[in-house]
Amino acid sequence: MTTGGRLAAILADGEFCVTGEVVPPRSADATSVMEHARALVGYVDAANVTDNPTASAHMSPLAGVRFVAEAGVEPTVQVTSRDRNRLGITADLLGAWALGARNLLCLTGDPLTIGDHPDAAAVHDLSVLEMVSLAKRMREEGTTLSGADIAEPPRYLIAVADLPLADPYDPARLEVKLDAGADVVMTQIAYDIDALSSWAQLMRGRGLFERAKVIVGVVPLRNAKAARFMHDHLPGVRVPPPMIADLERVEQAGDDAEEVGIGLTIDVVQGIRGIAGVAGVHLMGMGHDDVVARVVEGAGLFPRPIGIRPPAD
């Protein structure tokens, strides 16, 4: 029995991985999903398919999984505990695997109060820890929470989220997720290499890099406004002031800040790559797939490995 697919094989082989993201639209038309996925082919090893991001209604992530897989990119399905009970989660884990997902990111989900349905009822029948345990049970025991046998169990590479630059940072919160059965950690957006290096030192001291593969999140910088917004409003995200100042200086001169932002992002990715123990980078293009491609190329991460086979358990 094998776990996961291409991404799992790349991580097992010790290659520095690159993952991306596709956001299903607020639409019943799959065109944009296919276009975004096709633009990532050859530049990422897998792509996260988001699940009602910012607590707003979008196309189902399972539908997104199908279209991303058809485009030629390995899907990572995101599943939130916010919107499903254990019956729905089990059904979606079975369905997403059948549609081509080989990786699973277990999330609580953004609070409903920030989305377009603030009066919706949050479910949270299972916690993230319980969802991780369910996915591991399905993979390794071939049974559901009710004890029913699964004829063909999904064998996901199981991921969880973490905020490495949260202040204060409590590693115990991550450790319990790994205890539940997570294989991979996908972090919140990080630009501060010095702070991230200090976090990595803490991880090494607790042996956490040996317990899970860590993939660090990055959104390519495109302008000063977006950089300031992330710094001011996203929990656990710090954009170093010199980066924001560089973008502002270029904009004030009337020049193209995107070029500077791409250069800054390439520097960040190369800095992340140099941190011992970090297994990869997760590039969230926010619909700007051409920028993701330019960062991957500029950071020396193109072409991606080919001919990688899934590891045996």
In short:
By secondary structure, the protein is α/β, with parallel strands linked by helices.
Structure keywords:
single chain, globular
Element layout with pairings:
Elements: H1 6-12, E1 17-22, H2 31-40, E2 46-49, H3 61-71, E3 75-80, H4 86-98, E4 103-107, H5 128-140, E5 157-162, H6 171-180, E6 184-189, H7 193-205, H8 208-211, E7 213-218, H9 224-233, H10 241-252, H11 257-273, E8 278-283, H12 289-298
Parallel strand pairs: 1-2, 1-8, 2-3, 3-4, 4-5, 5-6, 6-7, 7-8
Kindly provide the radius of gyration, computed on alpha-carbon positions and rounded to a whole number of angstroms: 19 Å
User: Describe the biggest sheet?
Assistant: 8 strands, parallel, barrel
Q: What are the secondary-structure elements, in order, as H or E?
A: HEHEHEHEHEHEHHEHHHEH
**Counted beta strands:** 8
**Overall 3D shape:** globular
SS summary, helix count: 12
SS-based class: alpha/beta
- Report the β-strand fraction as a percent range: 5-15%
User: How many angstroms does the end-to-end distance come to?
Assistant: 6 Å
Whole-number mean pLDDT: 96
Q: Widest sheet: strand order?
A: 1-2-3-4-5-6-7-8
Helix amount = 40-55%
Low-confidence stretches: none
